[in-house]
Design brief:
single chain; Aminopeptidase; Elongation Factor Tu (Ef-tu), domain 3; 2 domains; 9 helices; 27% helix; globular
Length: 366
């Protein structure tokens, strides 16, 4: 929307190293603990205090004694699977934990998380030679299964696997053409990374904020915004800036009519919708224009489908807005985001925070 402004890269090699480690770590919905520990260890030097809640949402705070409170939020959980049924022959059928895509499962390698440690397994699938093309079945929850190299249910259980064990994909972080960060669970641990970078930059630039700033890495977004619902009741913020991913629509088989005309590499996406407080959105847009940060626009219907909805409608109404990162191939193991967009989202959040005044009243009618 605005002209490009030449900026030095703001992400250091150590930051990228943390991003890689954070993405490669498993953090499935309901089992986010290890990822939250990594995140807290990274952000701790840049904040005044931190805490976690009963279900594992992690919060780092600058100016914790301030009455006026601003939240900068992402979600920490990734989609995964649950062990649902173990056959007598030692094969494993699954249930979704979040919006896991059955279509991408065949031939994937996975980690089954047990009390005895990680057990390796694979999604098996019949060879092309033996499938009948005229009657070929598509992958579904009825026919995808795990093979962990066992020949009986007893052998499976001896490995520590039982109904309820969580299963995550094994695919790891990579950089594509020196332009895209690629990996599983960029939705939305890249958001947690970006808000942590804002904390770092505030510290390094010695920015003194006139309000309390709460960096929130919420759990259980993938199953209904549950972590955000809980933590907003505890913090009771005045303002919430949410970051999540949204669909890049430039790759094949994407519908711009259905999903809008959004592109990786063209900047953050700012959403219009009932949950988005228009005066706060205007502040973000004005900030982007002033700082020559390219941005794109999107429209939501009744809900954004992100933690924005949970914050906006809590505590009698919290002024909330959504800053999204365009992403290709959502809920696959090769989610991809453009490096320029990551830096632009960080800059936009940082500069927006500098423009929020203490006790700022965003109401339409005063």
């Amino acid at each position: 929307m605005s002209g490009n402004k030449k900026e030095k890269p703001i992400l250091s090699p150590s930051a990228i190293s943390f991003l890689e480690k954070y993405i490669n770590n498993s953090s499935p919905t309901g089992f986010e603990t290890e990822g939250q520990k990594l995140w807290l260890n990274y952000i701790r030097p840049y904040v005044d205090e931190h805490f976690t809640d009963t279900y594992g949402t992690a919060v780092a705070v600058i100016n914790p004694k301030a009455e006026y409170k601003v939240v900068l939020e992402a979600h920490a959980d990734e989609i995964s699977w649950f062990v649902h049924y173990i056959t007598k022959d030692g094969f494993i059928y699954l249930r979704r934990n979040g919006g896991s895509d059955h279509m991408i499962a065949p031939s994937k390698r996975v980690n089954i998380h047990t009390d005895k440690g990680i057990v390796k397994a694979i999604f098996g699938w019949p060879a092309i030679h033996v499938r009948d093309a005229a009657k070929e079945e598509a992958p579904s929850l009825k026919n995808i299964f795990l093979d962990c190299g066992c020949s009986s249910d007893k052998e499976v259980k001896e490995l520590g696997i039982h109904v309820g064990c969580v299963v995550t994909y094994e695919d790891e972080f990579m950089v594509l053409n020196n332009s895209y960060y690629v990996g599983r669970a960029l939705d939305n641990r890249v958001g947690g990374f970006m808000i942590a970078e804002v904390a770092r930059l505030l510290k390094e630039q010695k920015v003194k904020l006139p309000f309390g700033l709460y960096f929130v890495n919420s759990v259980q977004e993938e199953v209904g915004l549950r972590g955000a619902e809980m933590i907003t009741q505890r913090i009771k913020p005045n303002v919430a800036l949410i970051t999540d991913v949204t669909h890049d629509t430039q790759s094949p088989m994407m519908s711009k009519v259905q999903s809008g005309d959004l592109s990786c590499g063209q900047g953050p996406v700012l959403t219009y919708g009932p949950a988005v407080q228009n005066n706060l959105l205007k502040l973000i847009i004005d900030t982007a224009k002033k700082n020559k940060i390219d941005f794109q626009r999107a429209a939501a219907s009744r809900a954004t489908g992100t933690d924005t909805d949970a914050f906006a409608y809590s505590n009698g109404g919290v002024a909330s807005a959504l800053i999204s990162l365009p992403l290709r191939y959502m809920h696959t193991t090769v989610e991809a985001v453009h490096k320029k967009d990551v830096e632009s989202v960080i800059r936009l959040m940082l500069e927006t925070l500098k423009n929020i005044k203490n006790n700022q009243d965003f109401r339409y009618i005063k």
